[in-house]
Amino acid sequence: MLALASPALLVILLLIVLPVGWLAWQSIYHDGFTLENYRRILSEDIYWRSFALTFEISLLVTTLALLIGYPLAYAANAAPRRWSIVILALVILPFWTSVLVRSYAWLALLQRTGVINQVLQYVGLVDEPLALVHNSFGTVVATVHILLPFMVLPLYAAMQKIPNDLMQAGASLGGGPAHTFWRIFLPLSLPGVLAGTTLVFVLSLGFYITPELLGGGRTIMVSLLVSRNVELYNQWGAASAVGVVLLAGVLAVFLIVSRFIPFDRILAPK
Amino acid sequence: MKTLSPGRIALILFCALGLLYLILPVLIIVPMSFSSTRFLTFPPPSLSLRWYQDYVGNPAWMQATRVTFTVAVLTVLIATPLGVAAAYAITNSKLRIMRLIHMTLMLPLVVPIIITAVGIFFVYARVGLVATMSGLVLANVMLGLPYVITSVVAGLQSFDPAQEMVARSLGMNRLRSFFAVTLPQIKTSVLTGSIFAFISAMDETVVALFISGGQYQPLTKRMFIALRDEIDPTIAAISTLMTAASFLLVLIASTRRKRES
């Protein structure tokens, strides 16, 4: 059995474990052991700001995705079958569109001459086109859009497991719809909430394409910091150290959450 | 549940807005690609195939398209057998280390893509795989493996292994019984997994940004670089075609699944 798994394992070991291990090594070794790279991260303002910004944006994205995604999943679960298929199809459709394509679409929608600014000016809400893109706003709007299916699908999967009888029992015992929702449905959907929020939070922590294209060089998330350090400044040590901290953060989130739901269940609902 | 309470109307309205938000950007690409002007004005002043002609007439875009398809096809051809073998091992082995191996095989989904990309570039630079076809394919095989494995593991878990035992007790060896009994029953999961891997290879951008170069640059890399500079409607045309291609693939997978169930 081990022999059957070994070709795949070899590919993974050579192309992800070795490279990441190499980066980690490089972050602490440069003509001898050094913690210089990490000291820099702690002491230099730009690193702090980037980590703080990434954390803030990821938190905001996750919250927004939950606020939009929960009602969608709820409706898909509660609606008659016909409608539920329509809702799920519309959630999954963008999922199958390339992240690059969707970032581009938002770039086109949000730009100064884009449709949204045109409509706003046409109806007279604004006189001048708003700066909707090349900033954090554009990044958040597009990132929530791209990650929303990762929130809705686990939520929907969890809600499907809630037996209908329970809600009916609650209602027959005199609980109003709001009451049964708060006391029965919401608590039982929490595993889905946990899986969805974890997935979205972790994915936005490491997001690259969208902040690079829509952030306009002003929203420097951690991923961008890694690539800038490599591409512009050729600072492999700094890039590696930033990457290691980012990876440690992501793994920590997975580790904490996997105490509550199994690791493969977080990744599986795709 | 029959009457529309204010709460339900609010929910329906909210969901309609949510769905509009999800779907509008995907749809906006299509009219853009047929627009006659460079700037996206809505509705477009007149329709034209100008941007499609730009795409087809440009040797660099065509070369990039060939690279993308070659990489995606080779990725599937390699990742599928490797992934199926690993998934079989994961579901059939009682070794405790298999859990650890399973988690290791899922790493490409967990490690932020930028770290993977920089790391692979670093390793490739040492062994001369930067800007090569094999380097690009290998990286995409790695990224596609978790999709194949997840899908096939799910398929194998709903399959009764006793059937394979019967075949073996009738004198087939393990390999033959797998191909004769097990594979036909999990072929939908295998197909789904390989379609996932194909789409993932077709869409992959970040790793390609770092490790591809010269004549072996996929579409996504060229699109990304073009987008950093300006908004070029040629990209809307390419995006429309890419989106159509992946929808077609998903459609094939889902109709096959429906037919089987």
Describe this entry's structure for a reader.
The complex is a heterodimer of chains A (270) and B (261). Helix content of chain A is 78%, strand content 0%. Chain A has 270 residues and is an all-alpha fold. Chain A is globular, with a radius of gyration of 22 Å. With 261 residues, chain B is an all-alpha fold. In chain B, helix 1 packs across helix 12, helix 3 runs antiparallel to helix 9 and helix 9 runs antiparallel to helix 12. The chains are: A mainly alpha (270), B mainly alpha (261).
Which structural class matches the secondary elements of chain A? mainly alpha
Give the proportion of residues in helices of chain B: over 70%
Query: Largest interface, by Cβ-Cβ below 8 angstroms: which chains and how many residues each?
Result: A-B, 80 and 86 residues
Q: What kind of sheet is the major sheet of chain B?
A: none
Radius of gyration of chain A: 22 Å
SSE-based structural type of chain B: mainly alpha
Helix proportion range of chain A: over 70%
Give the termini separation of chain B: 31 Å
Overall average pLDDT of chain A: 88
Regarding quaternary structure, what we see is heterodimer
Shape label of chain A: globular
First and last CA, distance of chain A: 27 Å
Q: What fraction of residues of chain A sit in β-strands? A: under 5%
Query: Which descriptor suits the 3D outline of chain B?
Result: globular
The largest pleated sheet of chain A is described as: none
* Low-confidence runs of at least 5 consecutive residues of chain B: none
Rg of chain B computed from alpha carbons, rounded to a whole number of angstroms: 23 Å
Give the count of helical stretches of chain B.
Answer: 12
Helix and strand run of chain B? HHHHHHHHHHHH
**DSSP E strands of chain A, number:** 0
